Amino acid sequence: MKMNRSFLLVGLAACLIWSGCEKDETPPEWLTDFSAAQAKAKAGKKRIFLDFTGSDFCSACKAIKKKVLTSTEFLAYAKTDLVLVEADFPLNTPQSDALKAANKALSEKFKIDGYPTLVVTDADGKELWREEGYDDETPAQYVAKLKAIKPK
Question: Residue 4: inside a domain, yes or no?
């Protein structure tokens, strides 16, 4: 019994050293507050990824969310490099007046005129990249596109 306990402790120590046991598998959080996202991006030296969506009516919005934005590959990349922000403009899903006002202000700031529109900014809110619509890219193609974004 004592021998088994020793092997268990050695195994546990090896696992912790290799970080295999304590990987944080929680997906990154989607924020709705751009100011909070900026603070988080500055603290983590990350860029901000904004998803302007019509979540309950826009078929392209639903497709990119299902195929890319919830994929393991995108979320793993986002966790290390991005702060995620969703600005949703649903037709039938209730939202608070404060959230509607915040989303409208963000939409005006970035001159959004259709959904989905995806914007990447630096931590100060300077736009670095924008894409309107969704061309059915795979998660790998989408992540490669995001990795290629250079500061302006």
Answer: no
Domain-located, residue 57: yes
Contacts of 127 (CB under 8 A, 6+ apart): 110, 119, 120, 121, 152
pLDDT tens-digit series, residues 54-78: 999 999 999 999 999 999 999 999 9
Amino acid identity, residue 124?
D
Domain count, the chain: 1
CATH number of the domain residue 68 falls in: 3.40.30.10
Upper half-sphere CA count for residue 138 (Cβ side, 13 Å): 4
Name the pTM for this structure. 0.83
One-letter amino acid for residue 11 of the chain: G
- Listing DSSP states for 13-71 in one string gives HHHHHHTSSS---PPPPEES-HHHHHHHHHHHT-EEEEEEE-TTT-HHHHHHIIIIITS
